[in-house]
Amino acid sequence: MKTGRKKKINFSKIYSFKCGKESSRDDHSQIGGPGFSRVVYCNESDGLESSSRDYVTNYVATTKYTAASFLPKSLFEQFRRVANFYFLVTGILSFTALAPYSAVSAIIPLIIVIGASMVKEGIEDWRRKQQDIEVNNRKVKVHKGEGVFDLTEWKNLKVGDIVKVEKDEFFPADLLLLSSSYEDAICYVETMNLDGETNLKLKQALEVTSDLNEDVDIKDFRAVVKCEDPNANLYSFVGSMEFHEQQFPLSPQQLLLRDSKLRNTDHVYGAVIFTGHDTKVIQNSTDPPSKRSKIEKKMDKIIYFLFGVLVLIAFIGSVYFGVVTKNDLKGGHYRWYLQPERANIFFDPDRAPAAAIYHFLTALLLYSYLIPISLYVSIEIVKVLQSIFINQDVNMYYEEADKPAHARTSNLNEELGQVDTILSDKTGTLTCNSMEFIKCSVAGTAYGYGVTEVEKAMAKKNGSPLKLNGEGLDDDTFGNTKKSTVKGFNFDDDRIMNGHWITEPYSDIIQKFFRLLAICHTAIPDIDENTGNVTYEAESPDEAAFVIAAREIGFEFFKRTHTSVSVNELDLVSGNRVERSYQLLNILEFNSTRKRMSVIVRDEEGKLLLLTKGADSVMFERLGKNGREFEVETREHVNEYADAGLRTLILAYRELNEEEFEEFDKKFSKAKNSVSTDRDALIDEVTEEIEKDLILLGATAVEDKLQQGVPECIDKLAQAGIKIWVLTGDKLETAINIGTRLYSYACSLLRQGMKQVAITLENPEITALEKAGDKNAIAKASKQSVLKQINEGKSQVAASRSEAFALIIDGKSLAYALEDNAKKSFLELAMGCASVICCRSSPKQKALVTRLVKEGTNRTTLAIGDGANDVGMLQEADIGIGISGVEGMQAVMSSDIAIAQFRYLERLLLVHGHWCYRRISSMICYFFYKNITFGITLFLFEAYTSFSGQPAYNDWFLSLYNVFFTSLPVIAMGVFDQDVSARFCLKFPLLYQEGVQNLLFTWRRIIGWMLNGVCSGVIIFFFCKEALSLPAFKKNGKIAEYQILGATMYTCVVWVVNCQMALAISYFTLIQHIVIWGGIAFWYVFLLVYGAMSPSFSTTAYKVFVESLAPTPSFYVVTLSVVISALIPYYSYNAIQMRFFPMFHGMIQWIRHEGHSDDPEYCDMVRQRSIRPTTVGFTARSLARRNPLEDKKSAEHR
């Protein structure tokens, strides 16, 4: 056996690399037409023809702003918010005589708030700019003429340039592969950044350009490429190349996409076809849908509500003011001091209606403090800080891969605490996506003693001994069964291992079975030059497992040449190992539509063989009459494997005659070299004709193990009342197993005794119609069948409210269930079930199911996945979680939050989600409370002054209330407050339901906080007014003046709202002490400093504290009395609720306070409240067998 990778690998005769060798006789009719108008002059990027095309540059910008657009665009973004726009209007009006305060005091806070938001936007965009600069300034070798290549920055590339990309470098643009360091012009490409797949792809240039081996060969190269216009389809490319006056069709096999990486190849030469934003990867990088949390949307409604209240009280005050002003003409009116006969327009009794209108505008400005100007920016700051805490959480750090959690957006933090339904991918998300060959069925005989996780869990659950190799396993050996040291191979059966298969009754079929596994694939062998060991680069973990299994049984695939596959195998006749070569004629690749893969080879005896492997749903129907000898046994074994949670494939073959092959080869070559958008359909049509009358060999079974911690995570999420849907591409039987076996016992998604509602079109009636081939009849019957099964399922669920149901639906049925006239019923059925599993789901179906749940329930949905096929689902859900696993980064790049393992979802939701929801909800409620408290004192004072438009406070007191004196405590609460510790959040998952049911941000709670603000404002105003109005305030006998009343009320407001914060938070930190008590202290410092300034600037605050307030004992008595009185209503309500009507977090606080946190029986009793008949998880399963509450009552009774 030869060792070492050779540079002379040749794949030119394989169909995948055979395209483009036909002459101009091929069909190029679409080239030059609509959608196919791009013309590229290779190696002439500076020529006249190229310059006239005006293609985009290779500079890529992902920033939202430019230096010129930042100011106008960012300002537009800020003033799209209704509150900010309102404050802009009031700021403009403050320059008029209508304003009750100075313009500067109104504009400065607006500038601070808007400026802070713009700075945040600018910093985020600058980070994107830095990333763009790094990418655009990467360098690549570009042909400068005369065969000379110089390093040039990516951003300077032009369409038509010839570039030389070396090993482990990224492709700087979409390139047409011209040649490579391999003689046959192939190269290995890693597309992880594009489609999430880590397996290497094989690309090959046209044969006519494969001799461009050296830099100097590029000197005289000229060609014209005509191809499709820029588009987002990563897997298609239609075009032709005119070279030496001949046309050669181009396919995706010659296209190297930007951001993919060159691997295992020294260098390639390529022509730039698409640059910059025309490249396919950038075309795919559409902006993710704008997502706003439900709380943020509701917050807008609250602001509209407050604005309505503001307008109402301004209108009432203005009407009253107009009436009183008109009465000023009557003699003896108490407002004689206004001298109505000489009043201006604002107080003129003769123009009372106009005065009322002007007053209305003044009141709108004065009462604007009801709406918190710093609300939006405060929430943005809090969310950014919350995201930092999520990113820094060591309990969500995956050390093995060095991957922490990463919140890619901070807009949805509180949504993490309100998730009602999780829609999860399976492979790579719940499982490891690391396949192991564990069992097989050959010639109707089952082989493989390997024990799956499911079988172990089932045996433990049933209490029955598990047989291994005919012997029972006890508890000690359950977890210590024999484990292969070969990655991807966990097969154990002495009947066929170590060459023993030659003694089996059907040894010839076993030989064909494993020979098929060794030949039917697209894997690439890599032989270690030192050890001689063979490893494989395969397009999927499944395929790698099959080739490894064949090698371990004795059929070692070790070499692939330009026309053959070589296998080292055991000869049945001689009993010796021999090297056999199989001429490789065609590969019919696997895709999601075909669900199978075939190769056509010629063996050493000259026989033409069609070797096929595929899903049972498409393979059994392609068996010939003489090929069904082992069908019954194989079907039984496949079902058993599915019950054990294994993924299965059917293997079959047949011999071809020369005439049949030649006819197929002509049709296939014509279809493959067709330059049209329906090329794939033409290929499928041709392959259908030959993949028939197959002879069954057997079936394979591979295991995809669960990720660590998945069962426990699902159990906790289920206890939290979160519904979990699994959207998988597995077959129906395997999907049912996922629910009733794998997740029943290992993952706990479905409980024992849970009834199944399976919706499938795998029934005799539909099968008969499919054989008849009447598409209309099939569609009609399928739709009726699905509707009937949905209605029957709904009846089952409605008739038994106390039982739990599981819904399992296959992809075909799902297509009809998602149609307009069925989706409502389907959703009603699904929401009545504890668990839902959708199998054979396409990426589009995953997204549609997610949309249906989101829009149909109006609850928060979370989608989690790890592959490119999950992107639509992630973007459609309210929250998209990307798993940064082995399937690449596309799901992560399309997600809102990235985590390394599914198990981290438990902490992300139950801890961070709950905290963020509670903090944001409480923060917003408190914001409105403090502003209403402040606004009510303004309103009452203006009413006290007969709605004259006189503000109670100094201009700067008004302006700085939200910005300095009360903003930091609320930000600290939004970042640090914890009603329950992380340990208790995980110990009592039902706490999460506070967010799902939105108990902390209901209109009742919001209005309650507003009423608390009204109550506080009323108490502050009337206590201060009555306490200061009659008696002498100063030592010299003078009474309290207007400015003294205003400063005293303001002091009381600052004290009350900050002390209210101290009462509302549950978890004090040093920072909270500093900002709460520091905010109060800062008010006194400000009053001293501001009062010491010139009277022209400080106006009514001039020395008011030093000369009037500080020396007067009654000021301190009034302050203390008002603060206590204003806080008594909230304190009383909170105490009564906590003692007699506690919410769930209150109950947990009582458990901690009374020392019951370590009492398992008491905790179980509290936790039992979260378990309902429809709850899933192993905790629910165990509690379903007994009721701890009943046990507790029985014990107490005894």
TrEMBL record:
| Binding-site residues, ATP | D425, K426, T427, E543, F590, K613, R647, T728, G729, D730, R840, K846, N869, D870
Membrane topology classification:
Multi-pass membrane protein
SUPFAM superfamilies named among the record's database cross-references:
Calcium ATPase, transduction domain A, Calcium ATPase, transmembrane domain M, HAD-like, Metal cation-transporting ATPase, ATP-binding domain N
As its record notes, the protein acts as a catalyst of:
ATP + H2O + phospholipidSide 1 = ADP + phosphate + phospholipidSide 2
Annotated P-type ATPase N-terminal domain residues: 40-107
E.C. no: 7.6.2.1
Q: Which family does it belong to?
A: Belongs to the cation transport ATPase (P-type) (TC 3.A.3) family. Type IV subfamily.
Role this protein plays: Involved in transport of phospholipids.
Q: State the name under which the record lists this protein.
A: Phospholipid-transporting ATPase
